[in-house]
Amino acid sequence: MAYDRTAMLKLLRPVVTRVLTPLGRALIRRGISPDMVTAAGTLGTVAAALFFYPRGELFPGSLVITFFVLADLLDGVMARMTGPGSVWGAFLDSTLDRVGDAGIFSGLVMWFVVSGQRTLAGVALFCLVAGAVVSYVKARAEGLGLSCDVGLAERPERLVMVLVSAGLGGLGVPYILAAGLWLLAAASAFTVVQRLLHVRRQAVSTSPRPLR
């Protein structure tokens, strides 16, 4: 699962594991698999984002989304309890992460368009695209046998930035949502360049080989 491969989650892993292990054990006893938790978390994230955000209910929407995002941590805990993570589980987790991100930023884009904030709608769309590129660069590099475990703004950091700024913006804190999105856009763009340079250094230092 992606749970084990990001810097932020590595720091939170001991606390998260201690808190979520009893819940994970109870779900496993009831025949619920990590993949089912992953799918439910993504479905809840997308549904909450598309329901609350376009209506301008940013604070409650962020709270509900955060609840479902925790499923991304719970499935990792459950996967370790049931044995080595499966290839399918890792693939499903990464794929549904992109779906969840699309739901969150699409909800924000819809709200900005409805409320006449066209510039912020463009910034939110850029954050979505840049986040997808950040993930693609890593996936493509690893597919070519290269490492790409670098990045200022990986998915956990991006989620924290957008959910905190949206939640506080929903509480009426001035400029926080705009500032958060602009900062996220800059951090995502920087991460794309950071990863491209990291992969390029590896690629030019290795002997040419046939591409898959």
Automatic annotation (TrEMBL):
Mg(2+) 2 binds at D72, D93, D97. Catalyzes the conjugation of the 1'-hydroxyl group of D-myo-inositol-3-phosphate (also named L-myo-inositol-1-phosphate) with a lipid tail of cytidine diphosphate diacylglycerol (CDP-DAG), forming phosphatidylinositol phosphate (PIP) and CMP. PIP is a precursor of phosphatidylinositol (PI) which is an essential lipid required for cell wall formation. InterPro entries: CDP-OH_P_trans (IPR000462), CDP-OH_PTrfase_TM_dom (IPR043130), CDP_ALCOHOL_P_TRANSF_CS (IPR048254), PIP_synthase_PgsA1 (IPR044268). Keywords: Cell membrane, Lipid biosynthesis, Lipid metabolism, Magnesium, Membrane, Metal-binding, Phospholipid biosynthesis, Phospholipid metabolism, Transferase, Transmembrane, Transmembrane helix. This is Phosphatidylinositol phosphate synthase. Pathway: Phospholipid metabolism; phosphatidylinositol phosphate biosynthesis; Lipid metabolism. It is a multi-pass membrane protein. It comes from the Bacteria. Belongs to the CDP-alcohol phosphatidyltransferase class-I family. PROSITE patterns: CDP_ALCOHOL_P_TRANSF.
